Amino acid sequence: MTVIAVVVVFGILVLVHELGHFVTAKMTGMRVDEFAIGFGPKIFSYKRGETVYSLRAIPLGGFNDIAGMTKEDNKAGERGFCEKSVPKRMLVIVAGSAMNLLLPVFIFWGIFFFNGVSTPSNEPILGGVATNKAADKAGLKAGDKIIAINGKEVTSWSEIVAGIRNTTGEMEIVYERNGAKNTAKVESAYDEMYKRNMIGIIGATITTPAGFFESAGLAVKQTVSIIGQMIAELGRLLSQFSGEGLAGPVGVVHMTGEVAKMGITPLLNFMAFLSLNLGIINLFPIPVLDGGHFLALMIEGAIGKPINGKILHVAQMCGIAILAMLMLYATKNDIVRLFLGG
Fold first, then answer.
1. Active-site residue flag, 170
2. Domain coverage including residue 311
3. pLDDT tens, residue by residue, 235-262
4. Which of 124, 246, 295, 330 lies at 20 to 30 Å from 254 by C-alpha?
């Protein structure tokens, strides 16, 4: 389940990102020698016109081989990337991230239009139970109505949340299913990511239908809201020089697998979240990222000539070093959270 979910989710995110670069490169008259999904040896490829379209063995990534990225390597003449105007090159560079920021709008539109708009219910009823988490192991199921926690009656979802947060270790939950009362012993666990005790349950929701245009408006609003929250969180991390909230590849793969167990709609929501993350992070002005290339083009436009190749090379090496350190730190966080219980 995890492997399939990771391949599908990241395959779509990479495909959309690279399509942004590919389409704008073609639109601006650049020659694209290869459009690839994945890295490593080719599994399948075919050539149409001047471009080879390929699927490669390692599915987590992709690339566009745009001819003439530098004047030294340009064999495409005026169709080389380096020969195009600065605005055209900027468009190609930023298009990948733009597509990742746009994809969630379509994902959310589909969710709202086909599933309706869900708002949280405050009824003490389980809307879902995560597989292999404490509640699932104790036998709780979606639809169960919680009556009491540790002998204290609950009448709302907020009281359930408070009861779980205030209990460390084993708790006694009385619930009603099909008119019969049952008791379950549930072991709560502190979740480092969410900073609270959790047992793997979510509340019920109230769903109302949404029309085509209403769904589109809600999708845009949802996307803008999440982008704002992400930027605020990034600002908080930078201002506090804190990386404790960073998740690396191990953590993202783990979360993808966990969300996939909950169903297609939660997985689509998570894909939208990852797509926005990818789009925003790629726009950081760090050399080797799209944002770094965009910054270099801005400098070129301001000074009227390309940045010196040696300076650019040093900047890119620094960018790679920064990304490598961030990746190692995030992976350390993943290992501590997932395997060491920190």
1. no
2. 2-116+244-339
3. 877 777 666 667 777 788 888 888 888 8
4. 124
**312-329 pLDDT, tens digit each:** 889 989 989 988 888 888
Q: Are residues 10 and 97 in the same domain?
A: yes
Residues 112, 9 share a domain: yes
| Residue from 18, 34, 78, 233 carrying the catalytic annotation | 18
**Residue 93 and residue 132 in one domain:** no
Domain count, the chain: 2
Task: Tell me the C-alpha to C-alpha distance, in Å, between residue 321 and each of 248, 251, 307.
Answer: 16, 21, 20
195 shares a domain with 153: yes
Task: Assess whether pLDDT exceeds 90 at residue 296.
Answer: yes
CATH code of residue 192: 2.30.42.10
State the pTM of this model: 0.79
CA dihedral 111, 117, 122, 124 (to 10 degrees): -50
Condensed to tens digits (0 to 9), the pLDDT of residues 37-63 reads 988 999 999 999 999 999 998 877 899
